[in-house]
Design a protein that fits this description.
This protein has a 7-stranded mixed beta sheet, sandwiched between helices. It has helices at about 5-10, 25-35, 50-60, 110-125, 140-145, and strands spanning about 15-20, 65-70, 75-85, 95-100, 130-135, 150-160, 165-175. It has about 190 residues and is of the alpha+beta class.
Length: about 190
C-alpha cells in the first residue's frame, strides 16, 4: 500500500502536548527499543523508568521543553531540548532529541514533534539548535532535520562503538529566531 492521501486519512491525527509524569512508562518503552536496536543513542543498557523520570525532570527544571506526540490516545513519540554544553557561553544553544515508537517511523510524527519543539525553543529565546545524530547512515533522521532547516556542519568519524561496529556522529545546526544577527537577551 502506498503512503498517499488515502493512507494518510486512515491514520488519526497526531497531537503534540507537554509531557507529564504519567508519560514516563511510554517514553521509557520507546527509548528502550532505540537503545537496544538503534544507533541514535550511544547508551548500551536502557535506563529504567526511574532514571527516565529523573532525566525528564532535569530537562524541565532546566527550563527546556519536553513534548510527547499522542495518536489514538497513546504516546507514540517524544522530543525534548537540553543544554548543548554546560558552560555559560553556550546558554543560548540547545541540543534536540526526537524518538518515535517503533513501527510508526516515516509517518510524519517525528516531523510534527521536532517542528513543535523548535517553535517552543524559539519562544523561550534560544538562538541555535544542534542535532547530534548517531550514525551517518541514519538517513531518516538526517532527512528530517534537513527538511526542518538544519544544515550539515560536520561528522565525527567513529566516535562510538556499538553493535560490534564504529559509529559516526553527524552534527547539524539551525538558527532559531534572529539566530546570530543580534545579541541575545539572556
Amino acid at each position: 500500500m502506498t503512503d498517499g492521501p488515502d493512507r494518510a486519512r486512515e491514520r488519526s491525527a497526531v497531537t503534540i502536548r507537554a509531557s507529564e509524569e504519567a508519560d514516563v512508562a511510554a517514553i521509557t518503552a520507546i527509548y528502550h527499543h532505540h537503545v537496544l536496536h538503534g544507533a541514535a543513542s550511544f547508551e548500551i543498557e536502557p535506563p529504567d523508568a526511574a532514571e527516565i523520570a529523573r532525566r525528564r525532570r532535569a530537562v524541565l527544571d532546566g527550563g527546556y521543553p519536553y513534548l510527547v506526540a499522542e495518536q489514538d490516545g497513546r504516546v507514540v513519540g517524544y522530543a525534548y531540548a537540553s543544554a548543548y554544553r554546560p558552560r555559560p557561553a553556550y546558554r543560548n544553544t540547545i541540543e534536540n532529541s526526537v524518538y518515535v515508537e517503533p513501527g510508526r517511523e516515516r509517518q510524519g510524527i517525528g516531523r510534527v514533534l521536532l517542528a513543535a519543539l523548535l517553535d517552543a525553543c524559539e519562544r523561550l529565546g534560544f538562538r541555535q539548535v544542534v542535532a547530534v545524530i548517531g550514525d551517518s547512515g541514519h538517513e531518516a533522521s538526517i532527512g528530517l532535520h534537513r527538511a526542518l532547516g538544519f544544515r550539515m556542519v560536520g561528522t565525527l568519524r567513529s566516535a562510538g562503538f556499538k553493535f560490534g561496529r564504529w559509529i559516526d556522529i553527524v552534527l547539524m545546526q539551525r538558527a532559531l529566531g534572529p539566530g546570530d544577527e543580534t545579541p541575545p537577551s539572556r
